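User: hey, got a sec? need tryptophan--tRNA ligase folded
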Amino acid sequence: PRRVVTGIQPTGELHIGNYFGAIRRCVRLQEQGDDLMIFIADLHSLTTRQEPARLQARVLELAACVLAAGADPARCVLFVQSAVPRHAELCWLLTCLATHARLAHLPQYKEKAAAMKEVPLGLLLYPVLQAADVLLYGGTHVPVGADQVQHLQVAAALARTFAHRYGRAFPAPRALLADDGSDRLRSLRNPNKKMSKSDTDPKSRILLTDPDDIIELKIRKAVTDFTPQVTFEPETRPGVSNLVSIHCLAEDKLPEEVVQEAEGLSTAQYKRVVAAALQRELAPVRARARAAALAGLR
Ligand code: TYM
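Assistant: Yep! Here you go:
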């Protein structure tokens, strides 16, 4: 049987990459009757410095957003990672099977470690904890963005090593990627980079909580190129293509459809169309998130 497991870090505010790339896809899997677990990966957040009270508040904010996006506790399991001590326990068992060489070789680790003077061990072990998160529940399919594929390869390798050493205990999980462009939304300021919570430029991402005027502003300032036509060519025109992807996700359309509809529009005019589509998709989620957050405070 198929079991879907995924985690989201409560570090920084959710952006539309997290929403379209992971959360909304989970909600759709739930609608189709999949066996689904979503958790808030607060232990993973501790790999970078956190202010405890702030982190606790963010866990609740994230829970409110996930509920607002349509996760239904009657049909899926929504929980906080640190409330289940077995994540850390299984992590230790897997740590003894993981090799330093493999972990130190992962690009995300190398990039983050290179920017630090003192590298916490947790940063190196990050993918092992992520493996524990999935293996603990016998997870088979993990809906994530493309940035998590290598982490899931580590998880699958650890499941196999565990089977060799101790006997088969866990299925090897795999990343469940989307085919609609949602697994790789790009930065609005530099379309060669992914949209990221940790980017220092707030205009590089649209937050789930951004009001309509900010959505409009960020889309208007999005970096494109010097060709005015709207086309979908992710390799050669990543900026405009990213806007097309966002538009498609907001309206559940295919790139060909939206490109055809945009015929005759300049990219500047097209940006208004994209902003409007995104505003329509996000407004109800934002309103429900605010209501859920307020209810949580009472
Ligand atoms: P996190 O919190 O960085 O991101 C949450 C989810 O959003 C996806 N994502 C994107 N998708 C499309 N385009 C983007 N620009 C974009 N940016 C982020 C991520 O791929 C992710 O699916 N390590 C994980 C959290 C985690 C986890 C797990 C995931 C901990 N344990 C077990 C799956 C299974 C992370 O940092 O996600």
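Quick note: The mean pLDDT is 96. Let me know if you need anything else on tryptophan--tRNA ligase.
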